[in-house]
Amino acid sequence: MDIVLEYCDYYLLDKVYAYALPKGGYVDTLIHQSPLFNTIAQFDLGKAIKTVPIIDHITSTNNTLVSNAINFNATSINSANLPSYLLNKVINYQNKADIYGLKPNLLPAGDFFSSSFLPRSSLFRESLSLLVITTLFGWLLYFSVAYLSYVYVFDHKIFNHPRYLKNQMSMEIYRATTAIPVMVALTNPFFLLELNGYSRLYMDVNDCNGGWKAVLFQIPKFILFTDCLIYLIHRWLHWPGVYKRLHKPHHKWIVCTPFASHAFHPVDGWAQSLPYHIYPFLFPLHKVLYLGLFTFVNFWTVMIHDGNYMSNDPVVNGTACHTVHHLYFNYNYGQFTTLWDRIGRSYRRPDDSFFVKENKAEDTKRMWRKQVDQMEEIRNELEGKVDDRVYIDQ
Ligand SMILES: [Zn+2]
Ligand SMILES: [Zn+2]
Question: Which subcellular locations apply to this protein (predicted)?
Answer without folding.
Answer: Membrane
